[in-house]
Amino acid sequence: MRRLVTCLLMGIFGSLFGCAKGDGHSHQAPASHAPFKLFFVDYVEDKTLESKDARAATKAEILHSMDCVLHMPRNFVGLIDRNDMTLQFMVNDDKTIHVDVPVPSRTGSFVKTATLKECLDLVSTLGDSIDVAKIGGLTFTSWNAK
Q1: Which pLDDT tens digit goes with each residue over 101-124?
Q2: Which of 12, 34, 38, 118 could form a cystine bridge with 114, CB 3.0-4.6 A?
């Protein structure tokens, strides 16, 4: 019950501050201050912003959105850098977070499992682009593995 109340409050605050808004009316950060584009799925708020519609977001906006959204299983936040590299976070059933950097040219992803704090720290230390070499603990997993 406490977790549900916390998530509902985060959803309310998120709506007030512009995170997890997929209705096209959320604040658009100026491109010069937003090195990333943000997309997400928030099942608590029943809101989605697909990757094809990702919006420009500052690092502070991304961190706020992550903190609002990444609490319920299957909720999802992703960011795309200026080189079209994607970094995705999805909440697992045990509340850990699956970190995924898809590499379509290699038919797989660099992945790891982390806590929300570790994910927030990861994003806060990103430069203006996503570099798998600078994200500790990633392992490559083929999408075709049987």
Answers
A1: 999 999 999 999 999 999 999 999
A2: 118
